Amino acid sequence: MAIQQPPDGPIWRKRTTPQSLALWFGWLLLVLLFILAWEAMTRNQIWAFVWDAPEQAADLFGRMVPPRWSYMDQLWVPLWDTINIATLGTLLAIVLAVPVAFLAARNTTPSPLLVRPIAIFIIVASRSVNALIWALLLVAILGPGLLAGIIAIALRSIGFIGKLLYEAIEEIDTRQVEAIRATGAGPAQVLDFGIVPQIMPAFAGITLFRWDINIRESTVLGLVGAGGIGLQLKSSVDSLAWPQVTLIFIAILATVILSEWVSARVRAALI
Amino acid sequence: MSGPAVLPDPAGEGATPGAVRYPSHWRRPPLISDGRLRWAIYAGVLVYLVVGIGAVEVNWGRLSEGWERGLRFLGGFVEPDFISRWDDIRAGLIESLTMTLTATVVGVVISIPVGIGAARNIAPSPVYLACRALIALSRSLQEIIVAILFVAMVGFGPLAGFLTLAFATIGFLAKLLAEDIEDIDAAQVEAIRATGAGWWQVLDYGIRSQVTPRLIGLSLYRLDINFRESAVIGIVGAGGVGATLNTALDRYEYDSAAAILILIIAIVLVTEYVSGWVRARVQ
């Protein structure tokens, strides 16, 4: 005789049968996809190169240390160029992104049907292309140099700054705008006194954040010829001068850490 | 800093001598309240702009040449050429997509234990430090730089790209997962522990159920990022469509390059849309 009587209704389960079947099927699909992708990816792989990777790594490391410190003399100018690319690129991006953000925000756009989709498209197109690809295009069009790097950084940053800024504009307190408008202010005055003061902290934060990212990105733009320390990196890698590569990595790492520290300090002072 | 007595009254009239004069106009407070610091910063910015812009050498002759090339490139967007390099483009896209998927799966699988180890509230101190060090290493090295090193180790091709993206995924996902685990509701963990559950059971019933939705969302977001990156690391030889794009631009085939860019943007938009939709449903 059973000690416990089964309950009258159905027993509680976390998922119904179709749900757990769907889940199981989903996992099966993922595993199959993974195996297919792996097969396709490694079809032309020469595994002999992979099996000796640990030896290659040890060999590479042996050639990378010690860094060639004397090479630093030639790195100061490229480092300064790198910082210039990031900073001037960010400034250019601000000039371009602020109007786009105001055109894209639902509450400030002049026309939600005509202008807003265009502004959103600019933001999306800018965001979906990496700064390095922008640089590749601009070097092909404008020729190598700092200018291509600055414009590449600016074009990539428009989407980032524009997206975060227009979201900040859409989230403002409408009562303040209402109050300014009630005093008889025109549209420009409403913008100046009602909207801009509310988004200023967000704007400062976004800009600093992007500047920080841009310092990182501008360190590698030189790989495609757009100026900065990446140029030295490319020539050192191409000539297999690994001690120089190590020094460049150290310089890049130090710059990135320094820029993070600066942006954290400025952020703390402003916000 | 400006008290009522400091500001001059622009109207002037009606002010009795000796009385405290109040400003008749409201002025908005400046962003930086210390006047001297404010002007010093303005001057510094101006000097930097002059020096910085002065350092940019603009070759106007090359630029006017570039104008014509830019127009040709725009023309390439109007009439993209998908056909003449289709085999290369297809091979590049397949490499990019397979690299993205495998690297995301492997990266997520590795970053789960690393993320658990990097959560202060459940990991012992040595494990915590080791996992945090791994995360910091992965986050501070840029994808391109990691790709250069992996190409030097395992040779050209998508395997180097796969290793790069998987490594970058660990830094991103493990950090966010660890922060999520540190933010969980401790009461639920306590309740599970009070039933006499062991460490694994606490992990499974107390923590996993709280972080799974966010983990799925973050993994999809990383899938997105990995595809974007996979289009770039080909430039240093780590496989993917970036190499095809680089070749097309080197040969001045702007119409093929435009076709590749259109495909990249389209795939990015589709993955972003799909992952956003799934994330909205899961979370």
TrEMBL record, chain A:
Main location (coarse class): membrane
One Pfam family named in its UniProt record: BPD_transp_1
Any one GO molecular-function label of the UniProt entry: ABC-type phosphonate transporter activity
Recorded superkingdom: Bacteria
Membrane topology, as annotated: Multi-pass membrane protein
Family to which this protein belongs: Belongs to the binding-protein-dependent transport system permease family.
Subcellular location as annotated: Cell membrane
Residue ranges of domain ABC transmembrane type-1 in the record: 79-263
Keyword Cell membrane included in the entry's annotation: yes
Any GO CC annotation of this UniProt entry: plasma membrane
Protein's UniProt name: Phosphonate transport system permease protein
Keywords on record: Cell membrane, Membrane, Transmembrane, Transmembrane helix, Transport
Organism: Thiocapsa rosea
Transmembrane domains' residue ranges: 21-41, 83-105, 241-262
Gene3D superfamilies: MetI-like (1.10.3720.10)
UniProtKB/TrEMBL annotation, chain B:
UniProt similarity note: Belongs to the binding-protein-dependent transport system permease family.
All residue ranges annotated as the ABC transmembrane type-1 domain in the record: 93-275
UniProt keyword Transferase present: no
UniProt-listed Gene3D superfamilies: MetI-like (1.10.3720.10)
Cellular compartment(s): Cell membrane
Molecular functions (GO terms): ABC-type phosphonate transporter activity
Keyword Hydrolase applies: no
Protein origin, superkingdom: Bacteria
UniProtKB keywords: Cell membrane, Membrane, Transmembrane, Transmembrane helix, Transport
TM stretches of this protein: 37-56, 101-123, 144-173, 257-278
Matching PROSITE patterns: ABC_TM1
Any single GO CC term annotated in Swiss-Prot or TrEMBL for this entry: plasma membrane
PANTHER family in UniProt: ABC TRANSPORT SYSTEM PERMEASE PROTEIN P69 (PTHR30043:SF1), PHOSPHONATES TRANSPORT SYSTEM PERMEASE PROTEIN (PTHR30043)
Organism listed in the record: Thiocapsa rosea
Official protein name in the record: Phosphonate transport system permease protein
Its membrane topology: Multi-pass membrane protein
Pfam families with a match to the protein in the record: BPD_transp_1
